[in-house]
Amino acid sequence: MAQKSAAMLRVVTGQGIIPRPGWIERILTMFDVRKTRIDLSRLSDEQLHDIGLTRDDVEAELARKIWDVPPHWRHR
User: Fold this and answer.
1) Is the pLDDT of residue 43 over 80?
2) Global pTM value
3) How far is residue 35 from each of residues 1, 3, 15, 39, measured CA to CA in Å?
4) Which of 18, 24, 26, 28 is the most exposed, fewest CB within 10 Å of its CB?
């Protein structure tokens, strides 16, 4: 059963043999972006310093719209 779930996850996320349709891909990408931005906000100041960011950089990223992503993310 776990193998079937893992295979379905690869298909749903576009990493399997069946690519995601355009609108589903956009929606899933927006959710991924939001989760990544939240994860970024949870890093400590020391961790942010290690990757070259400040708390202000993180706040600016969190303020961006969910669909505001780099152009190269839009056409995978």
Assistant:
1) yes
2) 0.60
3) 27, 25, 19, 6
4) 18
